[in-house]
Specification:
Layout (H helix, E strand, L loop, with lengths): L8 H27 L10 H8 L19 H12 L4 H20 L3 H14 L4 H17 L3 H14 L4 H13 L3 H12 L8 H49 L4 E2 L29 E2 L5 E9 L4 E9 L4 H9 L16 E6 L6 E4 L5 H4 L7 E2 L4 E6 H7 E5 L2 E4 L1
Parallel strand pairs: 1-7, 3-8
Antiparallel strand pairs: 2-3, 3-4, 5-6, 5-8, 6-10, 9-10
Helix pairs in contact: 1-3, 4-5, 4-6, 5-6, 6-7, 6-8, 7-8, 8-9, 8-10, 9-10
Family: Belongs to the TTC4 family.
Organism: Pristionchus mayeri
InterPro entries: Csn1/TTC4_wheel (IPR044059), TPR-like_helical_dom_sf (IPR011990), TPR_rpt (IPR019734)
């Protein structure tokens, strides 16, 4: 019979580290599954967590062989640790107990990272005392919570209860962490599933009262969360209805936008696609409906000859261009000392989307018509109207056809 060579201390340390890393990776993978690609948080399900824990060799009760008839690498490693260390189970429990006591000392001194390390060393011993293992995970959860690692603390609490379903301190710690993370509904499920089969022993009554108080707090939080969810659903429905109404109106007017808008898919539309943010504006502006159900627009007026601009808001689409500009040009701007930009001395244009030609907008044209000119494009929700002096028009503009011109 071949005698197996015992592992050296260095080999044993490496193997322990590998198993610990694998277990941590396994836990992280399970946490990642919880998030998936969904926007809404998936409820924390302790029973599901335990079922997944059972798949890891550290918690297997039935060791199944692979197709090749051998145990997996992890199971063989655990067996090696169990039989090759030279320690008896009693000695392992004593070692784990020592790490626990060391962690408790660090915890009392508020050295929580040191306490976490000590409890982890106790866990790595993998003694056969399930209650001791449960306490080690429970204590590590307490230390993790103190340094802000709430999700890790919850995983440790779940593992602690996996080792000892009667460990109500771990249940309470897990409930506190879940509540702090905002999982009120999951806290209720966690507590209810934990105390279902709890046997009141020793200091169980005070612990049950604490659990009951946490449950009552979770119920209040869950009611508040449900109100918030209902409010968000109402707001989302209202927002979608507003998007449908606006996109339908824009589609009816055959308007050309850059970036393109998902006119037929309001659920994909974001307000940011048409929001205007300029230094001249106090707040973001965007096209909207006024009290007469007409579209009202922010408008950029450019004076290319002098490099100046005006920004207007709430320009009703039914307003004639001349009516609005008459008001704007009635008094000279600071940069127009000679008041060259009088209503009777200027012409109005919009550019095609490729800036190849200009299209004249007559004073009697309303903005709804002007913005629908073929080739005109509204960029980032802001239509642009250009104002040229008639002197510039007569001197530099060449008419192509109709209201189309090129600047020579």
């Amino acid at each position: 019979m071949t005698t197996k060579t015992p592992m050296s201390e260095e080999e044993r340390a490496k193997l322990c580290q590998k198993l610990d890393d694998d277990l941590e990776a396994f836990m992280e993978d399970m946490a990642a599954k919880r998030q998936g690609e969904q926007k809404e948080r998936k409820p924390f399900d302790f029973d599901e967590f335990c079922r997944e824990l059972d798949e890891h060799p550290a918690f297997m009760t039935d060791l199944k062989k692979a197709e090749n008839g051998e145990y997996s690498e992890h199971i063989q490693a655990l067996q090696a640790l169990k039989y090759d260390t030279g320690e008896t189970e009693e000695e392992k429990c004593e070692t784990a107990e020592g790490h626990k006591n060391e962690g408790n000392k660090h915890f009392k001194l508020m050295k929580y990272r040191w306490a976490t390390e000590a409890y982890t060393n106790g866990i790595k011993v993998m003694c056969s005392d399930r209650k001791l293992n449960s306490i080690l995970y429970q204590n590590r959860a307490a230390a993790q919570a103190r340094i802000g690692n709430l999700r890790s603390a919850i995983k440790d609490c779940a593992t602690a209860r996996r080792f000892d379903p009667q460990n109500l301190k771990a249940v309470i710690r897990g409930a506190e962490c879940l509540l702090e993370l905002g999982y009120a509904g999951d806290t209720l499920k966690w507590i209810d599933s934990s105390i279902k089969g709890y046997d009141v022993v020793d200091d169980g009554e005070p612990l049950l009262k604490t659990a009951g108080d946490l449950r009552a707090k979770a119920e209040k939080e869950e009611e508040k969360e449900e109100r918030d969810r209902r409010k968000k659903r109402v707001e989302a429905a209202k927002d979608l209805s507003e998007k449908k109404k606006l996109l339908s109106a824009l589609s009816e007017r055959s308007l050309n936008f850059s970036p393109r808008l998902p006119l037929a898919h309001p659920e994909l539309f974001e307000w940011s696609l048409i929001e205007v943010n300029m230094p001249q504006l106090k707040d973001h502006q965007r096209v909207s409906f006024n009290d007469e159900s007409n579209l009202q627009w922010p408008l950029l007026i450019q004076y290319p000859e002098v490099g100046q601009t005006d920004v207007m808001t709430e320009c009703d689409e039914t307003t004639m261009v001349g009516t609005l500009l008459q008001e704007v040009l009635s008094s000279p701007a600071e940069w127009d000392a000679e008041h060259k930009y009088k209503m009777e001395a200027v012409s109005f244009f919009v550019s095609d989307q490729f800036d190849e030609f200009l299209m004249e907008v007559y004073p009697w044209t309303d903005f709804k018509t002007a913005f629908s000119y073929p080739g005109f494009q509204i960029k980032q929700g802001l239509p642009v109207l250009m104002v040229f002096t008639n002197e510039k028009r007569d001197k530099s503009f060449k008419q192509l056809e109709g209201n189309k011109f090129v600047v020579s």
